[in-house]
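Q: Predict the bound structure with magnesium ion.
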Amino acid sequence: MSDKVNLSDMSQEQKREHYHKVRMERKKAQIDAAIARADTEKGLLLVITGNGKGKSTSAFGMIGRALGHGKKVGVCQFIKSRTDTGEEAFFGQQDNCEWHVLGDGFTWDTQDRTGDIATSERGWAVATKMLKDPSFDLVILDELTYLLSYDYLDKDVVLNTLSERPEMQHVVVTGRSAIADLRELADTVSEIKDEKHAYKNGIKAQKGIDY
Ligand code: ATP
Ligand code: MG
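A: Predicted complex:
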């Protein structure tokens, strides 16, 4: 900061400007140091969990980012079976995006644990192929958390496959109630809080917002 400042000659407004500048200079030094420290490049594992809206849409936002940079993306949608979503219609037709809907419907609709496990294993086989293929820069495992919290898939198999994926491959896992071991393994974990949701006021799922 400029050392010779005479505060007594300053108006209130000038003092305010001055203090703001001092604060921002300090902040910039801290941020620059943090940026300089964060110099590692690696494929990230991100977990977007919690009860609030915005988990899958956050993952879909990253698809847009990755495609915009010319990267190749794979998407595995577990649990859900609908194929009329805006995200699939849009991203699924991009050359660099491979999209698989691998669910059979919600657990309360199928009411069939054995069937759900078989579906999960078939889906996991598709995901495993992507997680072993370094040509995929980003893999989205949408609603995977339920397959672990319901014990539909072997936790160790899933966690090992995630750990042993190609070094630069990014993976995003979404869904409520992510298990502790998955959170532990992840580089970034966001818990989306449910403060309010239109659905609770009787508003049905809206096209373009909810699917
Ligand atoms: P989105 O796909 O909109 O980002 P999400 O992935 O966070 O939602 P899911 O649990 O996958 O949440 O929910 C799927 C559907 O349920 C979406 O249509 C979403 O808008 C809706 N939803 C999400 N959170 C809530 C909530 N807290 N209450 C009611 N409905 C919700
Ligand atoms: Mg979701």
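A: The two ends are 52 Å apart (CA to CA).
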